[in-house]
Fold this protein.
Amino acid sequence: MSKKGFTIIELMVIAGIFVIVAGMVFANFRRGENSSTFLLATEEVASNIRKTQTQTLTGSIEQEIVASGGFGVYFNLNQPNQYLIFRDDGNQIYENGVDTLIASTTLPANIVISALSNNPLTIIFKPPKPTVYLNGGLVANSGDVYLTSDRIESKRGHVTINRITGRITSELEQL
């Protein structure tokens, strides 16, 4: 009489292998999801700066008042999980209560603004060209925003605005 089939030990070994493989897949999935969220947050900061630049180029009207002073983005390390988009009153610097707040954008959980080329950092696009002002002046050639995530310690997000060309770039850098 021939017995065909698997022994209980063979079945337990196969089940153990499946559990190990599933655990590795799940761990890599979570790591990839965190990395994607971090990249998306960095790209969103750059996209919102570009949107502000485009509003200035198109002469966008906000609340039926032409933004002759331009539009801007304000970053402050005292509020590391958010940044502001506003319409400037014409002095090329953000003033709370004076400039018209368009949006307050909150970064995803566990992602913060960790460093700025200047703190605080105000980026203003003034029509019609638009001319780029960094902290009210035309001295600095670029402004930098750095993002970090407490879930990804080996990388940081970097958004750069070139004042001379108006080019806005974003990338994840290895630390």
User: Anything to note?
Assistant: DSSP finds one helix and eleven strands in the chain. The two ends are 66 Å apart (CA to CA).
